[in-house]
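= Protein in question =
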Amino acid sequence: MALTRKAKIITISTSVAVIAVTVYVYFHFFFIYSTGVNAGDINYFQQEGIVFKTYEGKMIQTGFKSNGNASSNLRSNELKFSVTDKTVADKLMRCSGKHVELRWKRYMGTLPWRGNSQFIATEVLAVD
């Protein structure tokens, strides 16, 4: 049974739309945008969530910067991060207030089971 012209257009349009959505979802949620290492003091680290229990933390990095307004106060650089690996989370639970180096991966978007941050800590390199 041959497809009519209208059926072919609908089939091709649907296929292109599905491929476009798949590519967008992959690059936005699963493609690692960047990797790196940051050092600083762990301000807090906690497990939170109602449905998805995720590990969330905040690192205060060394140094200060202004937001460009001369009359504003200086503020420290902060890195908000999430952790998906239980081993890394257990290490960080014992590091509140300590100086640590974290290796991280950055994604373009967040997923509820991965955490609230685009930055996902994958390894604790050093603890002082």
Notes: The chain has a mean pLDDT of 90.
